[in-house]
Design goal:
This protein has 320 residues and is of the alpha/beta class. The protein folds into three domains: 47 residues, no CATH class; 217 residues, NAD(P)-binding Rossmann-like Domain (Rossmann fold, 3-Layer(aba) Sandwich); 41 residues, no CATH class. It contains nine helices and eleven strands. The strands form three sheets. The chain has a seven-stranded parallel sheet with strand order 7-6-5-8-9-10-11, with helices on both faces. Helix 5 links the parallel strand 9 and strand 10. Helix 3 packs parallel to helix 4 and helix 4 runs parallel beside helix 5. The longest helix is centred in the middle third of the chain and has 32 residues. The chain is globular, with a radius of gyration of 21 Å. The termini are far apart. The structure holds nicotinamide-adenine-dinucleotide. The site of nicotinamide-adenine-dinucleotide has 28 residues, from helix 1 and helix 6.
């Protein structure tokens, strides 16, 4: 989506072959409404589509082929955002994008790989003309005690939940900085989908909890660094999404794993395990993608807050 600004040159972004964004002032408007950006090609111009609280915002959601990310992408799309479904699993990401409509497309990305992250950001900027909201959602969970945990498993969790947040913010923020330079009224948003395990320790789940606690430190530090460019950086910290595949998959889900491992004393069925977890939540239910998206939309709409880690836990975690 490229919008021409009447009366002054419209600033748009192109990415150099080294991956650096360059602000370009667009040239003449062609007869058919297309504009030509040197070194990049022709773009057709159209008025922004849709309506809603995120109208005209360009958003990337990583890990959005399933689970929380998919639900967040659906909610953001329904609220008017141009939505990039970025996931390691391209086939499933494409299914999600196709089910949404014209304002969505899929990108294959491995968030732990620098080249792949740079390519995701570049493709988004070139196809949509910029980036307004980056939702850092892709994450993995590998539980295990100190005795069981192997270094390579610990590294795997850290690489995707912690290192990748750095990589994604590094590239996403470059586009947002360039947009700020072109328009000083501009706000960008980076939102990390963290976890309640980023706010309170998690027994025999330290690889995950440690990576998420680290994410809060990155969020606060990125927020301080990026505030001069009006880029807000916040984390949202959901409780457990019991209906999602991570918990409910009949073969690999945590409910069946915990039942088989005897983690919940006395539990004889998956329902017993589920009840034991739900009973820890004052609001007596798990967290949904809609709950998480409401928190993300708060971060986007709120112009006077940055560097926060906001619980979305039905009262299970209360900040001190
Ligand atoms: N499910 C929960 O109960 C829960 C609770 C709190 C926080 N979270 C957080 O929410 C986020 C999403 O969790 P979920 O349960 O929906 O996960 P999920 O396993 O259902 O989905 C994760 C998605 O991320 C993708 N992915 C994995 N590695 C990737 C990589 N290297 N690059 C790109 N994509 C990759 C997967 O293909 C998948 O589509 C995670 O950050 C998780 O820590 C989940």
């Amino acid at each position: 989506m490229i919008e021409l600004v009447k009366g002054k040159a419209a600033a748009k972004i192109r990415i150099s072959t080294e991956g650096h964004p360059i602000v370009t002032y667009l040239g003449e408007e062609k007869k058919d409404g297309a504009v030509y950006v040197e070194g990049v090609g022709s773009f057709s111009c159209s008025a922004p589509q849709g309506s809603g609280r995120l109208y005209n915002k360009i958003a990337i959601i990583t890990g959005s082929a399933q689970g929380f990310g998919k639900g967040i992408a659906e909610e953001m799309y329904a609220n008017g955002a141009y939505t990039v479904i970025a996931d390691l699993n391209y086939d499933m990401a494409k299914e999600v994008a196709d089910s949404l409509g014209d304002r969505a497309f899929a990108v294959k990305v491995d968030v732990s790989n620098e080249e792949s992250v740079a390519a995701m950001i570049e493709e988004t900027a070139l196809r949509l003309g910029g980036l307004d909201i980056f939702v850092n959602n892709a994450g993995v969970a590998k539980a295990g005690s100190l005795t069981e945990m192997e270094l390579n498993t610990f590294d795997f969790v850290t690489r995707i939940n912690y290192n990748a947040y750095f990589l994604c913010t590094k590239y996403a923020s470059e586009i947002m900085k360039a947009q700020f330079e072109a328009d000083n009224e501009y706000y960008g948003d980076i939102v990390q989908v963290n976890s309640k395990s980023g706010l309170a320790g998690s027994n025999k789940n330290f690889a995950y909890a440690g990576s998420k606690f680290g994410g809060v430190g990155l969020t606060q530090s990125f927020a301080l660094e990026l505030v001069p460019y009006r880029i807000k950086v916040n984390a949202v910290c959901p409780g457990n999404y019991y209906e999602g595949p991570l918990w409910s998959d009949p073969e690999k889900g945590l409910f069946i794993q915990y039942l088989n491992a005897g983690k919940v004393p006395g539990a004889k069925t998956v329902e017993d395990v589920r009840e034991s977890y739900v009973s820890k939540v004052p609001m007596r239910r798990g967290c949904s993608p809609k709950d998480v998206t409401r928190a993300i939309m708060y971060c986007v709409e709120q112009e006077y807050e940055t560097g926060q880690a906001i619980p979305v836990t039905g009262g299970q975690i209360m900040l001190k």
